[in-house]
């Protein structure tokens, strides 16, 4: 059950960083309005460091739902990868405030 992940499960998925695990985490954003779950997802996304996982988050920045693009933008902003945020703004995937506000 996607919305039933606990923090330990989310962390395990993030640390594995596979496309399937990133998809599971991002899909959870579309199935929950629970603030605590959103915070857990935000935390777990920050643990993703594999090239495969980072590439999948990039996919969501450009092709995800609005909430997925928001979380993907936050992920890249925290890493200081502003070039990718510039590209997303230029393509109309996110706005400048979303990309660069502190």
List keywords for this structure.
mainly alpha, 102 residues, 74% helix
Provide a descriptive summary of the structure in words:
Helices cover 74% and strands 0% of the residues. The chain is mainly alpha-helical and 102 residues long. The chain has one domain (16-100). α1 (7-16) packs parallel to α3. The radius of gyration is 13 Å and the shape is globular. The protein starts with 6 loop residues before the first helix and ends with a helix.
Q: What is the makeup of the main sheet?
A: none
Count of the separate structural domains: 1
Number of strands: 0
**Fraction in beta strands:** under 5%
Order of helices and strands: HHHHHHH
Backbone shape: globular
The radius of gyration over CA amounts to: 13 Å
The portion of residues assigned to helices is over 70%
Distance, first to last CA: 34 Å
Q: Please count the helical segments.
A: 7
Mean pLDDT: 92
Helix/strand-derived category reads mainly alpha
Poorly predicted ranges: none
